[in-house]
Amino acid sequence: MSIILSATMAGSGGAAACPDSTVWQRTFRSVSVTENGQPRALVPGTRIRIDFPDGKVNAGAGCGQINGAAAINGSQLVVSGVNLFRNGCTNDAAYAQDAWLAAFLDRDPTVRLHGHKLVLTDGTIRFTLTDSPAVATDPPLIGTYWVIEALVENGVTTTPRPFPQPYLVFQADGTVVAFAGCNWITSSAAHHDGGATLGEADTTKRSCAIENPLFENRLFAVLDAGEVTLQIEAGRLTVDRAGGPALLLRSES
To answer: 11-25, 41-55, 132-146: lowest mean pLDDT where?
Structure first.
């Protein structure tokens, strides 16, 4: 199997081998990463994310987007047609980390699941991940993976499809990356007290089997050039555009 690169803008203990059906429709975040038995430090402000729509895998390690077809074969996660999209990322270290994760998934790692805990390993690299929803404290705006729950405009609430999971990330280099369910939207943010000034947005022009163009267009309108207020409370983020739509998001980082 080979990894297709694109410059498109925008410890398991006694856990049993993962049965085919238990990881599907779930999203996991890294708790720890080791390589050759030693802790491996991730790029600051990043976290491994892997979600499993039925028969697929979507993943990211801080900058790009990885996807491919997936199946559970005994204790193996078999991933085919691995694609890596750069999404307009300007952080070379974070993108190299995405490529490292894509190569790992392309090696069909062993998978074990025990409750909220998922362990993936290829014998050298070991990821321990969780899908526990617990949020102990409010996360930082920068580097957190924000799941888009709803978009509100003129009193009307629009909710996206849950899979593939739409999300938003404010990156440390000032880049804003959003996945709208089919296409990626990129912008820039100059942060100030209580909000940010967004730069002109750009979007990919992909055609997908499942699309929600109304939601994508409204999300683009939120992230296009202009002023937004940003408020984090109890692990949730509100991105509010004066006189325009507002985004409601929850932390998954």
So the answer is: 11-25
Q: What is the pLDDT of residue 12?
A: 37
Which DSSP category does 224 fall into? S
List 27's β-bridge partners, or say none: 51
pLDDT per position as a tens digit, 52-86: 988 999 998 877 889 999 999 999 999 999 999 88
| N-term to C-term CA, the chain | 30
Q: Which residues contact 205 (CB under 8 A, 6 or more apart)?
A: 183
DSSP state of 62: S
pTM above 0.85, yes or no: no
Handedness of CA 166, 168, 84, 109 (dihedral sign): negative
AA letter at 198: L
Place of tokens 């280099």: 173
Cis amide prior to 164 (ω within 30 degrees): yes
Residue type, 14: G
Kindly provide the b/e burial profile for residues 109-148, where b requires at least 16 CB atoms within 10 angstroms of the residue's own CB.
bbbbbeeebbbbbeeebbbbbebeeeeeeebebebbbbbb
Residue 31 pLDDT exceeds 70: yes
The token pair at 187 is 């912008």
